């Protein structure tokens, strides 16, 4: 299993089986608006670190962004397969 699918699975499990003190559960408890704001914040941090040409920071910020996108996907019932299908449809 690749890391994105593994992380998606963990996030899905956290939604179904909350763990006290879990940051993922904190986000789910706060709702879609909070999760969406975190996606926006992380996207800005990616742009800033890339603009500063800080490779290490950019990698870390992209990882943060991808995590928050996965949380948003689980929150909205969107699967990795849904995204892959959309990307495939754009290659035609």
Outline the fold blueprint.
Elements: H1 3-16, H2 23-30, H3 32-51, H4 55-76, H5 80-89
What would you say this structure looks like, in words?
The longest helix has 22 residues, at about 55-75. Helix 1 packs across helix 4 (about 55-75). The mean pLDDT is about 95. The protein has about 90 residues and is mainly alpha-helical. It contains five helices and no strands. It has helices spanning about 5-15, 25-30, 30-50, 55-75, 80-90. It has one domain: Helix Hairpins (Orthogonal Bundle).
**Total number of domains:** 1
Characterize the largest beta sheet: strand count, sense, and whether it forms a barrel: none
- CATH topology-level fold name: Helix Hairpins
Q: Secondary-structure element order, as H and E?
A: HHHHH
Mean pLDDT: 97
Low-confidence stretches: none
**Count of distinct strands:** 0
What is Rg?
14 Å
Class by alpha and beta content = mainly alpha
* Fourth-level CATH superfamily: MazG-like
Assigned CATH class = Mainly Alpha
CATH level-two architecture: Orthogonal Bundle
* Share of helical residues: over 70%
DSSP strand (E) fraction?
under 5%
Number of helices: 5
Task: Categorize the overall geometry.
Answer: globular
What separation lies between the terminal Cα atoms?
Answer: 27 Å
Task: Please outline what is shown here.
With 92 residues, the chain is mostly helical.
Provide key terms for this protein.
80% helix, mainly alpha, 5 helices, 92 residues, Helix Hairpins
């Amino acid at each position: 299993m690749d890391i994105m699918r593994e992380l998606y699975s963990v996030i899905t499990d956290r939604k179904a089986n909350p763990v006290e003190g879990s940051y993922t559960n904190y986000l789910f408890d706060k709702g879609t608006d909070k999760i969406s704001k975190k996606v926006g914040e992380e996207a800005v941090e990616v742009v800033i670190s890339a603009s500063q040409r800080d490779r290490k920071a950019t990698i870390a910020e992209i990882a943060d962004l991808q995590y928050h996108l996965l949380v948003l996907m689980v929150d909205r019932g969107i699967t990795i397969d849904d995204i892959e299908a959309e990307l495939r449809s754009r290659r035609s």
